[in-house]
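Q: I'm teaching a short session on how sequence maps to structure, and I want students to see two examples side by side rather than one. Could you give me a first protein with its sequence written out and its structure tokens following it? Keep the formatting plain so it prints cleanly on a handout.
A: Of course. Example one:
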Amino acid sequence: MRLDEYLDPDLVLPSLKATTKSEVLREMTKAIAARHPELAADHALSVLLDREGLGTTGIGDGVAIPHGKLPALANIILLVGRSLHGVDFEALDFKPCNIFFLVLAPEQMTGIHLRILAHISRLIKDESFRRDFFEAEDSHAMLRLLQSY
């Protein structure tokens, strides 16, 4: 499995501006809705906030993997973002998050959704990947890095 198969290059965001968890989720869902007009950003945000209410998706080591299921989606949508200043995402290790993988999936694609989450989890365990991703010059360098894994 390769993440770039599910990733629109325009949904690689090298410099998220938001400073809080809800603002980051809003910024990312607005970016997705701009590329996918059939998606209601407010509904996607609500689904993600509901999921965060069950437990944080800030998994530690500066990474968060917010995710949710939307019945109206036809395909999985993946967004990758980076915050240069870090965001308090209520991560399990209590450290700010800089790297975000947002996954939205149709309800009927549970298997692929779980495989993508597992792939992301394996990827971000690699300290050199996290460092190189954080230090990448721009979205093109970030995308090339994702394509190389």
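Q: Perfect. Now a second example for contrast.
A: Example two:
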Amino acid sequence: MRDPKNQMFAEACAMLKQAEQLHRQFFGPSSGGHSASWEPPVDVFETEREVTVITALPGVSPEAVRAEIEGTTLIVTGVRAIPAAGRGANIVRLEIPYGRFERRIAISSRLRLIDQELENGCLRLIFKKAG
């Protein structure tokens, strides 16, 4: 008869291994194709006059980001490149997503972009509501 503690430990280890595999599948480096390999998290704040969208993009240069509106969808796309330290090195752990990203956010069709800034790893887009 097996010890229940050992059985529970083995099951926990198997679940952790599966979680790591899923993390690598969804947040691993891009295969170079056109499909996005990860989605950055966003915050959306709305006041009476404005809507602010903040997208977390640590280590992404302003030149590597594109934001556009298609109908009632804001689309933020770009590439987060592996840093120089990672090129040619053996990757021991890769938890921060790299590669092509895309995030689609539903917005009101009556918004006009009035300000954008990429600072401290966050893209901040401010929209004015149409009267």
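Q: What should students look for in example two?
A: Point them to this: The helical segments are 4-27. Also worth mentioning: The mean pLDDT is 85.
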